[in-house]
Amino acid sequence: MAVAALTIFVLAVLLAPGSAAPGLIGLLCGAALVTAGGALLMVVMRMLLRLATQREAEALSLRGELDEVI
Description:
This protein is mostly helical. It has two helices and no strands.
């Protein structure tokens, strides 16, 4: 998704000096920002999922140790 955001932004930059309407350039830049935000959200959610699975594995191992003690 980051590549898509960069591609949209490059398209907006290439169209800016020409005869394209300023509103179109603004819409393209807005779409690039939304796409970049989606990419950032995906990165954060993947990181949180990785942390959650690590914590779950740690909790299972600690539960096994607790069962041995009890």
